Amino acid sequence: MSNLRVSAGNSADLVEFLSPRDVFQAFDEADNCGLRPKVTILDPWYNKGVGGLMDDYDGFIRQLLVRACRISDHVFLWGFPEIIGPYVRLIPSSHTLVSWLTWYYKNNPSVIRGWRSSQNACLHIATPEATLYPENFLNRIQKEKLKAGKLRYMPGPTSVIENALLIGFVGKDEQTGHPAQKPVALYDKLIRMTTSEGDMVFDPMCGSGTTGVVAIIRNRRALLNDIEVDYVAMAKERLMKDYRGWAERLDEIGNNPDKPKGGRSRPEDPELFPPAPISKAPTIKPTRRSRGTQPANGRQQL
Question: Which residues in 227-254 are b (16+ Cβ under 10 Å) and which e?
């Protein structure tokens, strides 16, 4: 394994890269080293469009899930909804489906005539004992309530995650040219929900290295691999950037909001924004003048 030490602010994280190899060889290396990453992220080509077609794609995904579940408590598997749906039944018996996650984006420039795709799917599977960390998404007020023992429940993020595609001028500071790059804010939610500081995340098909970027920002460890030499070089170059201030930026857009938009109460978060008491309108007793007269045709005259 080749080590690449990078820094974010005053902290230094260690992101390790395997020499470029096939995904199953990457799992072999992890097994040989006795690694037990807390999380494994699987983002293979989707057997559609970019990446071409594989004759036994079902068998390929089955083996990916078996290998990932052998070493990690949490596993994320990405794909298009119509492709990934059947793979819920392939989840190994050691793990269960925690959530069907949806990445929702509005800015797909597809020229296909008909429905324009606006989502990717991600299966989050885990062992029954695996820990989730929804407290990582609490806002300032909720953290104060938690510290005081007054937070009645732990509000986490929704299973539909909205982040724009990195195209055009959107996410210009993140774009690498990789054809299937995921936004940092998207992976930030996955990694924060399933890890605490110091935990390891394994990404054996890392592409442009988004997993490594989040690891730097959030003080996690990451083991990265890709079969493509150019993508590994791209990821290494990307991780040399300065990510100071990114944690605060991601908290602002990814945590539970401190205030609702427009100052109105959010009915789905009564703990933070309790509804205002409803006051009855004063009863106006009708006077002789306001009663009017009732003519023969049934219409009231005032």
Answer: eeeebbebbbebbeeebeebbeebeeeb
Query: Domain with 201 in it: what CATH number?
Result: 3.40.50.150
Closest by alpha carbon to 130, among 41, 39, 215, 27? 39
The residue segments making up the domain with residue 212 are 2-263
Q: And the tokens for 174?
A: 């993140």
What CA–CA distance (Å, rounded) separates 21 from 27? Answer: 10
- The number of distinct structural domains making up the chain is 1
Nearest to 84 by CA among 69, 64, 68: 64
Question: Does 295 reside within a domain?
Answer: no
Pairing state of beta strands 119-126 and 74-79? antiparallel
61-67 long-range CB contacts below 8 Å, 24 or more apart? 61/87, 61/90, 62/87, 62/90, 63/24, 64/23, 65/90, 65/91, 65/92, 65/125, 66/92, 67/24, 67/27
pTM of the model: 0.82
Question: Beta strands 221-224 and 200-203: pairing type?
Answer: parallel
CA dihedral for 260, 265, 269, 271, sign (positive or negative): positive
| Tokens coding 213 | 């970027």
pLDDT tens string, the chain, 302 residues long: the values are 554 444 444 334 579 999 999 999 999 999 999 999 999 999 999 988 766 788 899 999 999 999 999 999 999 999 999 999 999 999 999 999 999 999 999 998 877 788 888 999 999 999 999 999 999 999 999 999 999 999 999 999 999 999 999 999 999 999 999 999 999 999 999 999 999 999 999 999 999 999 999 999 999 999 999 999 999 999 999 999 999 999 999 999 888 876 655 544 444 444 443 444 544 555 555 555 444 444 455 554 44
Give the H/E segment covering residue 60.
helix 57-71
Residue 32 lies in a domain: yes
